[in-house]
Specification:
Elements (H helix, E strand, L loop, with lengths): L2 H25 L10 E4 L5 E5 H5 L8 H4 L27 H16 L5 H4 E2 L1
Antiparallel strand pairs: 1-2, 2-3
Length: 123
């Protein structure tokens, strides 16, 4: 076989494999979860990584969504994010940091989760 023919076959094969790869990547991509798995809260005290899976699973803490998302009336509805009501400056209600501290610290103190600042807040 000639070099030109071999090169043409190689280019065609590479193009076919590229197209197949792109199609497989888009067709078989994982769907985004309906609820976030983890959320990073950035604040002046240091970032806090909140793990939904650990808090909701029976192997973890076993909470229901409405335990934290206190405005949920129907368990089938999608919960609002905390920032919808609790703003950083606290204009329309409790400041976001105050609401988190009240909600999170009370559960951690009762349920045995981390209670020291540095156990949740990371620089």
């Amino acid at each position: 076989m000639e070099v030109k023919t071999e090169r043409t076959i190689a280019y065609c094969l590479a193009a076919v494999l590229l197209v197949v790869g792109v199609i497989c990547y888009t067709a078989l991509a994982k769907k985004a979860p309906e609820q976030p798995l983890r959320i990073m809260f950035k604040n002046t005290g240091g970032k806090v990584l909140f793990d939904h899976k650990e808090h909701l699973s029976e192997a973890g803490y076993g909470f229901e969504c409405a335990d934290c998302h206190h405005t949920m009336e129907d368990p089938e509805e999608k919960p609002e994010s905390c920032g919808e009501c609790h703003t950083e400056d606290g204009e329309d209600g409790p400041k976001r940091s105050d609401a988190f501290h009240q909600q999170c610290k009370s559960c951690h103190e009762e349920g045995g989760g981390p209670v020291k600042c540095e156990e949740c807040h990371a620089m």
